[in-house]
Write a structure and sequence with these properties.
It contains seven helices and 14 strands. It is of the alpha/beta class.
Length: about 270
């Protein structure tokens, strides 16, 4: 498959155990090893504790339009509520309740309205992250002059692959768009829901940190050729394959099991 650069993935930073060990709690917005932006999409919030942990550990937070309604409806303590004020609320703003918008604006959130009907609220929110990430990185680095630069390395979409079926496919579509469009964020993009973490593998070798255990990952994993057919070779799974052709309507690796703290997947396509 050529001598492409190896891509390293560490999705375990989004697991309960790692979030807690990094002090990603509601006492402070901590600067963890992974500087990430969090986007909350307009979906019901199913796992409130994990949602709070992920959002509290984020360096930059964006609510996509009506997502603000769901967050405001959570039963939070005053301290929790104050710590979860988003930096931005982005979208065409046809879903956010006026009183919710007013509440967050008074708390300091910046509301950005984009009336473009040919892009989704998620697209608008991703563009917002890209627009404001560079200025935020400069601010972070100015506050820590003796440390190496700390760019935003990840964007986490909370509520990804949930709700309506068409919206779930739209979110998968954004994984591809973010890899090719300069207006969308740099770095790795993760879709997160209470059951899964989803991301787009790069062409070539991918090495993924996959610790299994309580508060970490369950053993289940799938490799889905959503964009186009691909040839894959894997290592670290219960059912590894070599030069294995996978496509919709043909062979697919679903319900496989993680058997190593690091799995390797080499693929001929993104």
């Amino acid at each position: 498959m050529g001598n492409l650069e190896t891509s390293w993935w560490e999705p375990a930073f989004l697991t309960t155990k790692v979030l807690e060990s990094n002090n990603c709690n509601l006492n402070s917005r901590s600067n963890t090893v992974h500087q990430y932006a969090a986007i909350v999409v307009n979906q019901p919030i199913e796992d409130q504790r994990r949602f709070l942990d992920i959002l509290a550990g984020a360096t930059l937070t964006v609510f996509a339009d009506g997502a603000a309604n769901y967050v405001k409806d959570l039963k939070l303590t005053e301290s929790e509520d104050d710590r979860l004020i988003p930096d931005f609320i982005c979208g065409d703003l046809d879903s956010i309740n006026p009183e919710v918008r007013d509440y967050y604006e008074k708390k300091g959130s910046k509301v950005i309205q984009d009336p473009d009907q040919y892009s989704s609220d998620l697209t608008k929110s991703l563009k917002c992250v890209r627009t404001h990430a560079e200025s935020l990185e400069l601010q972070l680095n100015a506050n820590q002059p003796n440390k190496s630069p700390t760019p935003l390395t990840h964007t986490v979409i909370i509520g990804g692959i949930g709700g309506r079926f068409d919206q779930g496919f739209s979110q998968l579509h954004h994984l591809y768009k973010a890899s090719t469009e300069t207006l969308l964020p740099n770095g790795q993009l993760f879709l997160v829901n209470p059951q899964s973490i989803c991301f787009l593998l790069n062409k070539g070798m991918n090495k993924i940190s996959t610790p299994v255990g309580r508060g970490l990952f369950a053993e289940n994993v799938g490799i889905i050729p959503i964009g186009r057919p691909a040839m894959i070779t894997t290592s670290g799974l219960e059912w590894d394959v070599t030069d294995w052709y996978t496509e919709f309507g043909g062979q697919m690796s679903t319900s496989n099991h993680i058997k190593s703290d690091t799995i390797e997947i080499e693929t001929s396509e993104r």
